[in-house]
């Protein structure tokens, strides 16, 4: 069985190859290890192999892990859907939030961000595929939301995030990611982050400009959702 360190090395090769194919600097592409449903021991193993950024979907599970791993200099990213009653804990315990899709949530995160912490890095989640089951603002709503978020004092709008409709067709994968890139460029806000691409489509995402690829299964193996 492959170890987490071996998996990280394999994903690193995939990222480098995709970057080279797209004539991009590999250093411009961050690997965000999606550790939801995985134990703190797995996060510790990934850290020992060189990973510092971890993405979590489930708030209480993540807070428990953060306590257990408080001896490590980890950067925590919240990447799941956000309920209003969870914003205070997210604002207090995360450095990044990739899944803001409405102004009410952004306003609460700004108001509840502790004064001693730096501004919370924000990505706006966009539903580029128009799936009813997916979170994210519509492309038509994006410009107004982005402008409003830039006015909030304790947030730093960094870019956009998407989870497009799954497909094995590389052309369809690239088209969805290209749409997010075009939407970001159209905002003219000088944003530097595109959070897009997962284990199955990271090459397409990198080809279209991803700066964070969110990788879980390829690093940690299949998830056990019975724990949540």
Could you characterize what this model shows?
The protein is an alpha/beta fold and 228 residues long. The protein has a single domain, classed as Alanine racemase (TIM Barrel), CATH 3.20.20.10. Helix content is 41%, strand content 17%. It contains nine helices and eight strands. Strands 7-6-5-4-3-2-1-8 form an eight-stranded parallel beta sheet. Helix 6 (139-150) links the parallel strand 5 and strand 6 (155-161). Helix 4 (87-93) crosses helix 5 (103-112). The protein is globular and about 45 Å long. The model has no long low-confidence stretch (mean pLDDT 95).
Kindly list the characteristics that best describe this protein.
228 residues, alpha/beta, TIM Barrel, eight-stranded parallel sheet, 9 helices, 8 strands, 41% helix, globular
Which class of secondary structure composition applies to the elements?
A: alpha/beta
Poorly predicted regions are none
Report, as a whole number of angstroms, the end-to-end distance.
25 Å
Beta-strand proportion? 15-25%
Helical content band: 40-55%
How many domains is the backbone divided into? 1
Total beta-strand segments = 8
- CATH H level: which superfamily? Alanine racemase
Please state the average pLDDT score.
95
Order of helices and strands: HEHEHEHEHEHEHEHEH
Q: Give the CATH topology.
A: TIM Barrel
């Amino acid at each position: 069985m492959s170890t987490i360190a071996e998996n990280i090395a394999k994903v690193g090769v995939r990222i480098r190859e995709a970057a080279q194919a797209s004539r991009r600097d590999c250093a411009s592409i961050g690997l965000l290890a999606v550790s939801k449903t995985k134990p703190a021991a797995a996060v510790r193993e990934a850290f020992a192999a060189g990973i510092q950024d971890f993405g979590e979907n489930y708030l209480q599970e993540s807070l428990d892990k953060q306590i257990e791993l408080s001896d490590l200099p980890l950067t925590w990213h919240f990447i799941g859907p956000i309920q209003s009653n969870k914003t205070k804990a997210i604002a207090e315990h995360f450095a990044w939030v990739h899944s803001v899709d409405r102004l009410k949530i952004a306003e609460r995160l700004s108001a509840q961000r502790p004064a001693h912490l730096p501004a919370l890095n924000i990505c706006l989640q966009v539903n580029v595929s128009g799936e009813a089951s997916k979170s994210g603002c519509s492309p038509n709503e994006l410009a107004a939301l982005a402008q409003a978020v830039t006015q909030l004092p304790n947030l730093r709008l960094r870019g956009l995030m998407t989870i497009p409709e799954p497909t094995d067709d590389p052309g369809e994968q690239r088209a969805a990611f290209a749409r997010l890139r075009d939407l970001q460029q159209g905002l003219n806000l000088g944003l530097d982050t595109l959070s897009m691409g997962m284990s199955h489509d990271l090459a397409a995402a990198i080809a279209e400009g991803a700066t964070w690829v969110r990788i879980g299964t390829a690093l940690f193996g299949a998830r056990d959702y019975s724990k949540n």
